[in-house]
Amino acid sequence: xxxxxxxxILVIFFLAGxxxxxxxxxxxxNEPGSDTSATSSGKTDSTAxxxxxxxxxxxxxxxxxxxxxNNNAAAETKQPVFFDLKxxxxxxxxxxxxxxxxxxxxxxxxxxxxxxYFKGLSLTAHLTEQxxxxxxxxxxxxxxxxxxxxxxxxxxxxxYFNLKSQASNQVSVEKIKSELLKGNLVLIPAxxxxxxxxxxxxxxxxxxxxxxxxxxxxxxxxxxxxxxTRKGDGYRYKYAVLLNAVHDxxxxxxxxxxxxxxxxxxRKVIIxxxx
Length: 275
Known about the structure:
32% of the residues lie in helices and 15% in strands. It is α+β, with helices and mostly antiparallel strands.
């Protein structure tokens, strides 16, 4: 009897059209990431279960340029108060023989000092004397006169000593310092009598050449190797005195002898020497 009653109830249940309806979550319209493809029957598109990729905005990195710096000012702050390259000294008359040849050998002695410095070799009186004699012989064979100009000195440094050099019209304390800091040497062609060196014989040479190897800001002096005096090793000249005396040799003006006034007309130029 119980079985009949249960069967009757089951028949009534199916006839009533009852069915199980799955509850779907409500989706708010236009909600980011929602899927609006659901049908009225509760079925959804097969893509509905796939996650929607979130839009990733690219990150923009903005580089802020560094503040410009004054390179000249930076270089100046790095310059020491005292600076002195160890350049061996060689006089133009190593054995104090001031004959006509040695009285005119300041250019040769200056170039020899530069050569030995860059070779890292010690310079003695004997080596200086032999160097001067050999160089003058070479110059005569190549048509050079007794005195050589800045441009001729550059050529000789290149061809005879295999050294790089250049003539520069930037004649200033800062220019000379900057070249020395690089390890270069500076050769000065000068109106010798404007140097006022008390160790020179008589008035001093009408034309002279020497090597600048350092400076001392405390005293305002350049440190030089002056080949024109036996006291020339590390001889000091005031900045203003040395720069005022810078004048190149002019062979055209010297055709009938050079006067002090003519010598002072020579151009302002320095010779920068390196390897």
